[in-house]
Write a structure and sequence with these properties.
The complex is a heterodimer of chains A (about 500) and B (about 260).
Chain A (H helix, E strand, L loop, with lengths): L1 H14 L7 H32 L5 H23 L7 H5 L5 H10 L11 H45 L3 H20 L5 H14 L6 H19 L27 H15 L2 H13 L3 H4 L3 H4 L2 H12 L1 H7 L10 H6 L4 H22 L8 H26 L21 H5 L1 H17 L3 H17 L1 H24 L3
Chain B lengths: L1 H12 L12 E12 L2 E12 L3 E5 L6 H8 L7 E6 L2 E2 L10 E4 L11 H11 L4 H10 L1 H4 L15 H13 L5 E5 L7 H18 L2 E5 L3 H7 L2 E6 L2 E7 L4 H9 L2
Classes of the chains: A mainly alpha (about 500), B alpha/beta (about 260).
Chain lengths: ~500, ~260
């Protein structure tokens, strides 16, 4: 039975349309994963040294033991927020003569097979060699890894249970923060030290051969709790997380209606952003990215380098446009047939999307004006970046949007979601960032960055001035690609 | 303009049967229309005209090409050859016809993150309707909605399939179109709504002379609403009949294999 279930899962993954088409994106994700892998291994190897520097005189392994309970709590929190619930279309299996416990076991245990969950081992295995082995010996190192593995299992099993029981993410997050804050306060005022407890407990477990298997009981407990949950909530409706929506009020953006059809379409896109999980979380990410400049501008390594400065300036002043621009037109995929058959001419449709991106550009630019406090140089870079974003990047995005025929699923989860992303999204980056940065770096070599800035600003200005002919080019391209977009958007993944 | 005047004269003088042969008559004209998907011809209509005010029923088994035909009229897919004209103007890659046509094919015609009220308002605004127009239109739809769609506080994506269909059909009508295109409007509707929809369509036909293109798997419904029935089979028109009291029997015997 389990074999069949896993086989079905495998087929579902492989047969989802776009799985093979997405090779480039998968390679990109793979490279990212490899990067993190290497970073983790390096970190694991160097950790003893770093710990010794932080707490000199203490054995690194003992210090590490002290933070393990904290790490378990923190990682549980991260999993609670990020780990997707494993789903099974229970309805289609429940009517078949299949033992229910088999379905439940499958549902509960499936996350354990996800290699992503074991990335922590990349850090702890090297550490067990460089840090634990000198302190506790070979068997100690093995026991250490054994404990870590079962703690990972414990976390992986417990997080979905918490997620199913406390569906309210906001409430859960606040609760977690309160607990973490409380523990930190107790530690700080030396009332109760979880650090010491963790240190003693883990030290004891690593040193005693058989008792360390009690950690196994912990993961077993998490598993049993899951089983109990499903025994109590027999019907899928009581545990399948659905976005429960209290009454959805109709909203009117009356100020938009003055702009006629264009305004109506923009108001529609704003509602689209506010009513989908993925776009909403992107909105928060965008707010976060606005602060990106704080890392770079005060740092002399970066603020002496014109390439970096321009990169950050384009990125920060165009945050909203760059984040949402990658989805423009594609995010209308689920109702594209509707838009194409209503009395909305191509000119108006493209114009509305352009206006929306321009507005995002202006808003981000205004929101980043506090950076002007970093000096004249930053003001100059920001103005140039704004002109380039508004005069070049908007058109690049609009033109690029006609090439991506993938339907974007906006209601699905958000963190690190690559659905609906194709290699074309990365291709767009070339005119977006690579060209201006190359230009300024080259001119920087002959100490003439101001000429490069002037050229980039002029290109941007020209783009703004020749808006009409440029938009007409995009309209033509859109009409050329219309049928490909229509049929692409009709395919659900 | 002159052509149009001439044709309206012929309309009043010649008997209906002859009108099929006159090119300028059709409000929708398709000629040499073909759609080929990877070597397989899914639709092949050498010539067809749909007259102003005609209610045109399209029947056929799955895969006969009904939806493909509608998608070609609505310029959602590209014809492999041939063209569709609405009032003498080509539809492909053009915008002019959109003002005259109301349509609902499937859930791709719904904006599922809006409430029905917002969806109707958006659609109506695109057609330059006023708030008053919207209010009186929704009032006229009250029976059809059966108190379940307006003021429910739900987003369209949370409505049942039947209510989604009603919402889509109503939005197709909100612009008061000359031409109405509905793909299987009766499926997923409850019996009462089916009867109400039939009554509504018949009313629109007589009071507003609306041209209707309706596909259906239900032979009863389609013969009750439409005065012309076209049967498609594997992309070809195999029957083109004026509805009479014998039509239902004829169709039933055709489909009973």
């Amino acid at each position: 039975m389990y074999k069949t279930l896993f086989r079905h899962y495998w087929l579902q993954t492989v047969r989802s349309p776009g799985y093979y088409k997405n090779v480039v994106v998968n390679i990109f994700v793979g490279l990212m994963a490899l990067y993190f892998l290497v970073v983790f291994v390096m970190l694991g190897l160097l950790l003893p040294k770093m710990l010794q520097e932080i707490l000199p005189g203490n054995d690194p392994a003992v210090t590490f033991n002290g933070i393990i309970i904290y790490a378990v709590i923190a990682l549980l929190m991260i999993r609670y927020l990020m780990q997707p619930l494993s789903r099974l279309n229970l309805h289609s299996y429940q009517v078949l003569p299949v033992r229910r416990s088999a379905l439940v076991n499958y549902l509960v245990l499936k996350p354990l097979l996800n290699p992503l969950n074991y990335i922590l081992l990349c850090l702890t295995i090297p550490f067990s060699i460089t840090g634990v082995y000198p302190a506790y010996g070979t068997m100690g190192a093995f026991r250490f890894l054994f404990i870590i593995l079962f703690l990972i299992w414990f976390n992986t099993l417990l997080a979905p249970l918490l997620k199913r029981q406390f569906n309210n993410i906001l409430f859960g997050t606040i609760l977690f923060l309160l607990i973490a804050g409380g523990l930190a306060a107790l530690e700080y005022f030396k009332i109760f030290s979880l650090f010491l407890l963790s240190q003693n407990l883990l030290g004891f477990l690593i040193e005693t051969p058989f008792i360390c298997s009690s950690v196994m009981l912990l993961s077993l407990l998490a598993f049993m709790l899951n089983k109990r949950f499903f025994a109590r909530n027999y019907y899928p409706e009581s545990f399948e997380v659905k976005s429960k929506r209290s009454k959805a009020g109709s909203q009117r953006f009356t100020f938009m209606e003055r702009f006629g059809k264009t305004g109506e379409i923009i108001a529609l896109e704003i509602k689209l952003v506010l009513r989908h999980k993925r776009t909403k979380s992107t909105l928060f990410t965008a707010l976060f990215f606005l602060l990106y400049g704080l890392i770079f501008y005060p740092n002399p390594i970066y603020n002496q380098n014109p390439g970096w400065l321009l990169f950050v300036a384009i990125f920060v002043t165009g945050t909203g446009m760059l984040m949402f621009g990658q989805w423009i037109i594609n995010w209308d995929g689920s109702h594209f047939d509707f838009l194409m058959t209503r009395d909305i001419d191509t000119h108006t449709y493209i114009r509305a999307n352009y206006t929306l991106m321009l507005a995002l550009c202006i808003v981000s630019f205004i929101a980043t004006t506090p950076y002007f406090l970093f000096g004249k140089q930053i003001i100059l870079y920001h103005l140039v970046a704004f002109l380039y974003n508004a005069g070049v990047n908007i058109y690049v995005y609009l033109f690029g949007a006609t090439l991506n025929t993938k339907r974007l699923e906006l209601s699905r989860g958000s963190s690190m979601n690559m659905q609906g992303v194709s290699y074309k999204n990365f291709l767009v980056m070339i005119p977006l960032l690579v060209i201006p940065i190359t230009l300024i770096t080259l001119f920087g070599l002959i100490n003439a960055t101001h000429i490069a800035l002037a050229i980039i600003a002029l290109i941007g200005l020209a783009g703004i001035l020749f808006r009409e002919p440029l938009l007409r080019v995009i309209e033509k391209q859109f009409l050329r690609r219309k049928y490909a977009l229509c049929s692409g958007f009709r395919k659900k993944e | 303009m002159q052509d149009y005047e001439n044709s309206s004269i012929t309309l009043s003088q010649t008997p209906p049967a002859l009108q099929y042969n006159d090119e300028s008559e059709g409000i929708i004209t398709a000629s040499n229309l073909k759609k080929i998907y990877s070597g397989i011809t899914v639709l092949n209509i050498p010539a067809i005209q749909i007259r102003d005010g005609e209610s045109f029923g399209l029947v056929g088994n799955n895969g006969a090409g009904k939806t493909t035909f509608f998608q070609l009229i609505l310029d959602l897919i590209e014809a492999s050859s041939g063209e569709v004209l609405v009032e003498g103007e080509q539809v492909a890659r053009r915008d002019e016809w959109k003002a005259k046509v109301g349509s609902f094919l499937d859930e791709g015609f719904l904006i599922d993150f809006l409430t029905p009220e917002e969806y109707f308002a958006f659609t109506a605004k695109v057609y330059h309707k006023s708030e008053g127009d919207i209010a009186s239109f929704l009032e006229s739809m009250k029976d059809f909605f059966n108190g379940e769609i307006l003021g429910s506080g739900k987003l369209i994506r949370d409505l049942s399939k039947g209510n989604q269909k009603k919402t889509g059909i109503a939005a197709a009508l909100i612009s008061d179109p000359q031409i109405l295109i509905l793909d299987e409007p009766f499926t997923a509707l409850d019996p009462t709504s089916q009867i109400r929809l039939k009554r509504m369509l018949n009313e629109l036909k007589t009071t507003r002379n609306m041209t209707m293109l309706i596909s259906s798997h239900d032979l009863n419904h389609v013969t009750e609403v439409c005065d012309r029935i076209v049967v498609l089979e594997r992309g070809l028109v195999v029957k083109d009949i004026h509805t009479s009291e014998n039509t239902l029997k004829e169709l039933e015997s055709y489909f009973a294999v």
